[in-house]
Amino acid sequence: MGRWGDEDVSARLTVDLDAVVENYRRIESTSAPAAVASVVKANAYGLGAIAVSGALYAAGCRRFFTAQLGEALALRNALPDDATFYVLNGLWPGTEIEAAQAGIVPVLNSLDQVRRWRRVAASWGGRLSAILQIDSGMSRLGLTREDVRVLAGDPDLLSGFEVQFVMTHLALADTPGSCWNDIQLATFEKLSNLLPAIPRSFANSAAALTRPQRPGDLVRAGIGLYGGQAIASGPNPMRRVVDLSARVLQVRDVPANTGVGYGMTHVTRAPARIATIAVGYADGWPRRLGGRGAAFLDGRRLPVVGRISMDSMTLDVTDLPRSALDAGDFVELLGENQSLEDVAAQAGTISYEILTNLGPRLDRTYARYGAGPLDGRVYA
Question: Is the same domain home to 221 and 248?
């Protein structure tokens, strides 16, 4: 996959911004007439929130969800003023004025957050907005049944600011056949009906793809934007976004009955050729892939042997021609031959964790292969 180039990088992570936009468009077309917001929390799932949000903004997206206020503030300074940022975790006490000054919209998850935002809103002449989140059965964040009844019985609590949406989150949206989705949606509808008529949001990528006839008023697209498989089974309809390749540090001949790596968990049965590549668990590559993961070269699988180290891992390349691989070459870790879901399954985790763990040492390149939806612009 290439020799040493001018740039001195050990691994290259390529983010296809055209693919991000295409995935956004797919969710948007499936969800119509509902609006679609982009979830860019955790640095856009590890891929770079400023670049990704800029591409999505250029494609027409105007609503963005983060988890924390700091994430929203960083993006507020990077995108034009007509972009709206929502904070899923709500606001810590004492940060309301900072959020209000920046035009950040909090998701209010408790009566305490409602009351605090109402007090701040009183001095802003009704110009502030918020989202109410109802816990419909996930038991994570959101207003309880009792909280909603309090709000319903005291309309003044919601006075002084605009409630843009009432939202909930489905625990099993990636399993569309689960009865829990229907139970949660019924609970959400019953509790929402106690409040004034407010637009509703419950669909993530999975729910938008599996419930196109009922997407709600605002879809919150997350993993689907980044090429992950939003639905637990079946083909992945989203376009691949991430390619990751790592450089070979060294290739060596190893005799039979020789240990490889920490703990000598792999011992060669016959003479072998071992390639050491420059990605390890400090770069977010799961340590559990030792002895079970793989890299690829020109479509050929190169198994990981031995434990994955902090900065490197070792591959058995015995079956390759000697001229096929040398120090400085690249091998594929994510790409055409190995998807996020493949790696996640081998590591016993989910694609979200693989993405968000990709570390800052990985050199990120933002590729735009086509003209059109990005219009030549990226706010980075």
Answer: no
